[in-house]
Design brief:
Length: 278
């Protein structure tokens, strides 16, 4: 598919950007349903979404800029071409990092809730299922852009990648002809994210009597990184330190940290159902 959906003069509307917008709107809709279910004012969802999108985009871009992905531009390039960090007029932001987006978005939500005197953890719980759903949708932009694919595979669901979008050594068509298939890592992560969305909704609604505020948000930092850890092992473009993908290190830190926080919180504090019995 052509990454550009439509071009109007110098303005190009890209599939990737459209999918991000669709994902963000669905995330806001899911958050509004969660807020309504809890009796929270839903107008805050859409006001907060505007802030979170801006801070999330900044975080996502900075993660990419300071990374060093294999076969792609990173910090070594941007330190010499700083203007390209924000050069959206040259074809869009060529590089975003999801972990940076989550951190940036969380900081934006924290600022919004602090300014409006709202409980951050409660609203983070409202946002978490929609966040993972938006990620599931946004990953299909990587398919359209022919990026973030995995190692070669003989599995029947492998995908072909045009020569222009291949990273070394897979751009050697003698060794890797055009019919070579690659792991569709975007698909693996998207399917995992859809599953995580269902699990977070199930957790938030069926087990609400056993949860503390913030538990759904914390569970996100266990579920998503768990799947990302395994997907990252299949990506030849991974940013690595000492031969270990940085995203895997972040995933392990998130899982361990979030798991410890959940254990500590429930060890010290009674759940809502236990509180009502006291």
């Amino acid at each position: 598919m052509n990454p550009v959906l439509v071009r109007i003069g110098p303005l190009a509307i890209r599939w990737y950007g459209l999918l991000i917008v669709v994902g963000a709107l669905l995330a806001g809709y899911i958050a509004s349903l969660e807020a309504r279910r809890k009796g929270d004012p839903t107008e805050h969802v859409w006001d907060a979404l505007a802030v979170v999108l801006i801070t999330g985009l900044i975080g996502a871009r900075l993660y990419h800029v300071f990374s060093s992905p294999a076969g792609s531009i990173g910090w070594e390039y941007y330190r010499q071409h700083p203007l390209d960090i924000i050069a959206f007029w040259r074809g869009g932001f060529a590089g975003l990092g999801i972990y940076g987006a989550v951190v940036g978005g969380a900081l934006g939500l924290l600022a919004y809730t602090y300014w409006n005197k709202l409980p951050f953890l409660r609203w983070a719980d409202n946002a978490a299922p929609g966040l993972i759903l938006a990620q599931a949708i946004g990953r299909w932009g990587n398919y359209i852009n022919q990026e973030l694919y995995g190692y070669p595979t003989i599995l029947p669901w492998g995908i072909t990648i045009d020569a222009a979008h291949r990273i070394p050594p897979y751009d050697n068509l003698t060794l890797y002809p055009l019919e070579t298939r690659f792991h569709p890592t975007f698909l693996y992560e998207s399917l995992w994210n859809f599953l995580c969305f269902g699990l977070l909704i199930l957790l938030a609604r069926r087990y609400s009597d056993r949860l503390l505020e913030g538990d759904v948000f914390i569970a996100y930092f266990i579920l998503y990184p768990f799947g990302r850890f395994f997907v990252e092992a299949l990506r030849p473009d991974a940013w690595k330190v000492a031969s270990i993908p940085v995203a895997q290190i972040i995933a392990l830190v998130c899982i361990a940290g979030a798991g410890a926080i959940l254990w500590y919180r429930h060890r010290l504090a009674p759940t809502p159902s236990e509180s009502s019995e006291m």
